[in-house]
Write a structure and sequence with these properties.
It holds the Pfam family TPD1_C. The protein has 140 residues and is an alpha+beta fold. The protein has 2 helices and 7 strands.
């Protein structure tokens, strides 16, 4: 009985370590900007933040020292905190999901991720790939 209990505890522990431990590097957050049009004579930019990690990331902070815009941004979408900006009130951005916001200024601003908190559960590459295949079928 004691051996079975030790085996069960070891299995649970290893499952948590393998499945639940993940540390997302900052370069797993990709920032893409595309020109959308004009607002008050300034170029309007759509910023996409994409999570390429297998785990959700929350409390995403972007460096935004010197950031300016003539287009108002809801502070629940991008909240300036000194020289940094908190993305979407710190909510979790799941694997391969995208958060977007718009601003208007010339030239575009070089947003850079400076920190995030890695969450769980982390997903395997197969789970992410299967989910992406399913999302592709929805568009047919």
């Amino acid at each position: 009985m004691e051996t079975a209990f030790k085996y069960l505890i070891s299995t649970i522990f290893l499952t948590l370590v393998i499945k639940g431990s993940c540390n997302c590097p900052l370069n797993s957050l990709q920032i893409v900007q595309r020109l959308q049009g004009q607002v008050q004579g300034k170029s309007q930019w759509i910023v996409s933040v994409i999570n390429h990690c297998n785990c959700p990331q929350s409390q995403i902070l972007l460096s935004c020292k010197g950031f300016q815009t003539v287009e108002g941004i809801n502070p629940t979408i991008l909240a300036k905190q000194g020289d940094n900006c908190l993305l979407y009130n710190g909510h979790a951005l799941y694997p391969n999901d995208i958060d977007e916001f718009a601003y208007a200024w010339d030239p575009s601003f070089p947003f850079v991720p400076i920190s995030s908190v890695t969450g769980s559960p982390c997903r395997s590459q197969n789970e992410i790939h299967d989910d992406m295949d399913f999302k592709g079928l929805e568009n047919l």
